Amino acid sequence: MESWPPGGSGPAEAGRRLRGLRGADLAASASLLSGAGAEAGCSAPAVAAVLPAGGSGERMGVPTPKQFCPILERPLISYTLQALERVSWIKDIVVAVTGENMEAMKCIIQRYQHKGISLVESGVTRHRSIFNGLKALAEDQPNCRLSKPEVVIIHDAVRPFVEEDVLLKVVTAAKEHGCSDYDLEFGTECLHLALKYCHIKAKLIEGSPDLWKVTYKRDLYAAESIIKERISQQICVVMDTKEDEEHVGHRLEEMLKNELNHVKVTSGRDLQQIILEQCYNFVCVNVMTSDFEETQKLLNMLEESNLSILYPVVVISVQFLDYESVPFGQKMENLMQIREFAKQVKKRNILLYGLLVYYPQDEQKLQESLRQGATIIAALIKERNSGLIGQLLVA
Amino acid sequence: MESWPPGGSGPAEAGRRLRGLRGADLAASASLLSGAGAEAGCSAPAVAAVLPAGGSGERMGVPTPKQFCPILERPLISYTLQALERVSWIKDIVVAVTGENMEAMKCIIQRYQHKGISLVESGVTRHRSIFNGLKALAEDQPNCRLSKPEVVIIHDAVRPFVEEDVLLKVVTAAKEHGCSDYDLEFGTECLHLALKYCHIKAKLIEGSPDLWKVTYKRDLYAAESIIKERISQQICVVMDTKEDEEHVGHRLEEMLKNELNHVKVTSGRDLQQIILEQCYNFVCVNVMTSDFEETQKLLNMLEESNLSILYPVVVISVQFLDYESVPFGQKMENLMQIREFAKQVKKRNILLYGLLVYYPQDEQKLQESLRQGATIIAALIKERNSGLIGQLLVA
């Protein structure tokens, strides 16, 4: 028998946290489709999620319904699906969308490779959409591929930052509590629905501040900044040579560590592993050559890995400019190839930039160049601006 | 006698809008220090504002109190002061800050040239801070430079986007309504204060969505994006020649108009006027020369105007690269001077970037260059990234 709940947070602790919830967001509500699981103690309940996503987003002030508004070019609902998919114990996810948006939703699922998603048509109200989602999960539907769950999480499609621990609390509460009418007065219409029509009880669970609902245009801005910040926490530095530990590439790496002290700077010795760990930022340092061989290798690995399906990956190809080894004009001509590379890899959601670091003999000036280089790298990673791809920046 | 209210929104209409306010934000509350103004009918009441700003910002998750958190390098409270200063009929503004932050607040007022601001020490609670602010406005204080107002607006220091019309509603309601106890239950502790200790009545006014309170870190992100968007609505294009209407600078201007259809693109014929109208984005097109004479003139005008005190001003110096007129190497050397210029003007909050637009003979390729140039200009203006100043971008 699978141990439940996962992660070790015992029912007693979860129960304690669930009390005293004045003014809390209703992050998600859970309903028990059958009472059978409730007596099963610590067995893993079969959990499914229903996402009502038929809304028109009137308050957003933009023509696109908010669940389809793009954040870093990917629709908001895809982030919410990603957050639910990561939770291994959610077996099925049902999304209720309007007939009009059904095809668009299918494209989103395909493009961003979401798994285990079923679509139903939404109703004219949020309640009807939820009902349609629950119907799809009920056993008595003909040709139903879905397994009947014990617990169903109803989650807003426009709350992309839901964490596993909150979902766990919801499910634990659904299994454990008879729940109280007291909580009802602080809930939303969703709780009314559950109580009135399903003849079951409902419980309000406190969410984290990150669980807020994307409602206004400013929330889209905030969501974009949060996502950009999350994927900018790690930078991997790849070198074209490993022999000389004293070389200028390592000095740039040290400068990055000093200047960006909130960011984890990793050496790209085991690239496959770093890609697997979902690092979205790469600095490719070319000391020995002025071509893009090393960068090309990295780009090939990234393209094969599918890392950039969900988030734009930043690659900065760094060259050192010492005015001596190669004539400047010829070097520049080589370097301008980056514009073509950048156009190509943009199609795969990889943002490629070039950085030329001036390499003077004077030690103090070199320090200044490297610091400037670190500033530019930080700016490019932070903004992830596709309008500047293929540019050759100079530090 | 001055006509009241300004802007022509009559009391009847304002009154109608004030009803039915369930769940509305308490944007600002108003209290009548004396009843004398209330009977004066349509005369302009003497209005002051008190900003309690003694909070510690625990929920923000950052060490700086939220009212001092920087947005585009300027503290949040300065934006709120700016919003209140714009309202001509608010005569005095009193800010309550902790003794610890008194000096910092004085620096903010000086640096951003805020006028008519008085400082008082905040109390241990928000209520005491408001009380201290009101005391400063009362007549019986010794050495008080402030005039005793009829209406005092209490406004959160962390609501930077307050508009004149909402403040007008607040003041109109304070003058007009006896107000009802009914509204009390939807208010905050501030209303309790007014009712219990001042023996006056209070009224809740509905705010706009933009009036939201900066509470969490995500709200800082949202505020920054909103401000960036607001100051990116107009681009002024300055040319170094006016004779030939067919020249490539005008074609770039046309391209900007086509590509950035949500932005107002203005020709810089009357620069002084455009600066007065608070345009924060300039594209300086150099066709005749490869130096920065025209850009330098513009930078001088901007520095004299003080336009950049409140917001970073973007200047993009555009050169056309036709490979023929001047040898490439020499031209590049000239152009690299932009890095030094950029460092200098950054001290005055001007963000200078260079843009080199390739100028091929082939018409289709030229179109493509110009389009690429417009994309880069849009990206630079949108992001306002100080890490990339002095860069020479290539379209």
Automatic annotation (TrEMBL), chains A, B:
UniProt organism field: Monodon monoceros (Narwhal)
Keywords: Cytoplasm, Nucleotidyltransferase, Transferase
Lineage: Eukaryota, Metazoa, Chordata, Craniata, Vertebrata
GO cellular component: cytosol
Identification of the protein by name: D-ribitol-5-phosphate cytidylyltransferase
GO biological process: isoprenoid biosynthetic process; protein O-linked glycosylation via mannose
Compartment(s): Cytoplasm, Cytosol
Gene: CRPPA
Pfam families: IspD, ISPD_C
Function: Cytidylyltransferase required for protein O-linked mannosylation. Catalyzes the formation of CDP-ribitol nucleotide sugar from D-ribitol 5-phosphate. CDP-ribitol is a substrate of FKTN during the biosynthesis of the phosphorylated O-mannosyl trisaccharide (N-acetylgalactosamine-beta-3-N-acetylglucosamine-beta-4-(phosphate-6-)mannose), a carbohydrate structure present in alpha-dystroglycan (DAG1), which is required for binding laminin G-like domain-containing extracellular proteins with high affinity.
Reaction(s) the record says it catalyses: D-ribitol 5-phosphate + CTP + H(+) = CDP-L-ribitol + diphosphate; D-ribose 5-phosphate + CTP + H(+) = CDP-D-ribose + diphosphate; D-ribulose 5-phosphate + CTP + H(+) = CDP-D-ribulose + diphosphate
